[in-house]
Amino acid sequence: MASKLPLRMMPGFPMASPRPWSMRAFSTCRRSTLPLPIASRPSSLVSRPLIQRSFRRSYADAPQAQLSPEPKPKKRFRFFLWTWRLTYLSVLAGLGYVTYQIYEGRNPKEQLEPDPNKKTLVILGTGWGSVSLLKNLDTENYNVVVVSPRNYFLFTPLLPSCTTGTIEHRSIMEPIRNILRHKKAKVKYYEAECTKIDYQKRIVYAKDDSEIKGDTMETEIPFDLLVVGVGAENATFGIPGVREHACFLKEVGDAQKIRKQIMDCVETATFKDQSPEEIKRLLHMVVVGGGPTGVEFAGELQDFFMEDLQKWVPQIKDDFHVTLVEALPNVLPMFSKQLIEYTESSFKEEHIQIRTKTMVKNVTDKYIEAQVQNPDGSKVLEKIPYGLLVWATGNALRPVVKDLMSQIPAQAKARRGLEVNEYLVVNGTENIWAVGDCAVANYAPTAQVAAQEGTFLARLFNTMAKTDAIEAELRDLSGKQATANPDQRKVILEEINERQRQLRRIKQIGPFSYSHQGSLAYIGAEKAVADVSWFSGNIASGGTMTYLFWKSAYLSMCFSTRNRILVFFDWAKAKFFGRDVSRE
Ligand code: FAD
Ligand code: NAD
């Protein structure tokens, strides 16, 4: 009789119990110390009647209490369960978001045609200032024209990592065409250098400086509004030999040149019958300038040597040296005292030599001549031989900026760049704005400042366009009001009042104010230093945790999802496989 009943209705069979061949039954039996039924083995090879028979047998022998439904998981287990659920839901949501970002990035929408009746806004440069302006600008309000010899945006904070191959340069470049193609209205881009700005005639002169030339190489671009974001060039202070013999570190080409020269020095030093002095010279890597560029590069270079070069070319082990030369009494002058000391002691541990109070005066192809200040204050001239020389002594004005300054009487006293007012308007002009390293607004020439200035200008231009549109509507409404009957006039008056209220709200745009988020710098050996603003104070920290913070901060700041993924994989690649020591 009992054997004819369906298994679920047999006495002693738990109603809410899972199927006997499920994993849950398997664990229930294990907990209840019952002999493990054959059927509960998660094997499809066991036949169904056999499962049923053996299961019936084992449950029939079991006391009732042991067969009761599984108790609910305790509170703390429920917590872990929910944490796990939340984690995988977040991972799924994150993956969905990244997939959407990639899809959106690869599939730009149709764009509006520019309206010839609108004002022409010319933007010079595709660096931090100009790109952050473009990113936030409503391009349908203007005819936007971008002129820059570089058809990509470069994430400069990670450029020192490209010199040793920790990061590939393409991972930190974002094509300007991608950026512009995602704007609502079309933007014209000319890959050219602006050679002159005639601020009175409102014309920009542009020259195609690329290797491939068409039948037009120079052109004139008229503007109503102009934004100058051409950055700065490398300062050499007129020191002889610098341009001829040193490498700079500002552009992708510079990083590639450095990477090639490091390997060239190493391979030449290991050439047959090289004299010991020549080996020492070739393997002496000298970095001039103890600002963040010089410090970060020196740290990256020493990492490359410690982690890769000495492993693959062991014969250079005793002769490879990195020296950082700085004219001032200490490196990283913009960081707090404790971080300066931390960096200096960290460099000592990493065997990077720091030569402070050493000012380079002359550069030849094989050595630099530097004026060294002794502890007693006396000065001596010293020759320091080098194989690779990297020059990182800060910024100087570009010729086009110097030329514009010379045309504007109000800029006669300016020395470090275009002086601007609190709305970033170039002093002495009405329709020219300047952002980033070419502007002097009492802030340090950093990406942070340039990006915030660009965002501010976008807000200003968007507001100006809205204001123009509302003012045109107001003129229109006033005209209509004159010929309207009393009822219509009442309605029009209400509309005029509403537009005036809107105008007042929009016009309330305050002047530019910079919010300093802090300074970060990598110092090698997986350590970084950070001076981070915290409420009204400042937190100074250095070490490996700061390095992780540095990494996550720069990863999140990369321009696009594509950049973020590429940088992440470059880091992983360098960690697992090491850096590539081939020359190219
Ligand atoms: P840039 O970004 O230099 O852009 C200038 C643009 O103008 C370029 O597209 C250029 O091609 C174009 N251009 C040049 N000449 C002309 C011309 N005649 N006509 C038209 N276009 C022209 N800052 C930080 O805050 N944090 C960091 O970690 C950091 N790390 C750095 C690391 C390195 C190696 C370097 C070199 C700089 C670093 N900086 C950092 C500083 C930061 O990169 C600059 O302050 C920032 O790039 C300035 O932005 P910008 O828009 O003024 O100029
Ligand atoms: P810098 O102006 O900050 O430092 C240049 C250093 O070179 C100075 O300390 C100067 O004393 C030294 N110097 C000048 N002439 C010399 C000579 N003849 N001999 C020896 N030393 C000499 O330049 P940088 O490091 O290229 O930085 C430029 C700008 O970019 C700065 O505003 C900097 O803050 C910013 N930046 C920031 C970061 C970061 O935040 N991690 C990284 C790189 C650059």
From TrEMBL:
> Transmembrane segments in this chain: where?
79-100
The Enzyme Commission number assigned here is: 1.6.5.9
The record's annotation in Gene3D superfamilies points to:
3.50.50.100
Q: Name one GO cellular component term.
A: mitochondrion
Residue stretches making up the External alternative NADH-ubiquinone oxidoreductase-like C-terminal domain: 516-580
Residue ranges of the FAD/NAD(P)-binding domain?
Answer: 120-454
- Name residues in a coiled coil: none
Which is one GO molecular function term here?
A: NADH dehydrogenase (quinone) (non-electrogenic) activity
Q: What protein is this chain from?
A: NADH:ubiquinone reductase (non-electrogenic)
What species is given as this protein's source?
Answer: Cladophialophora immunda
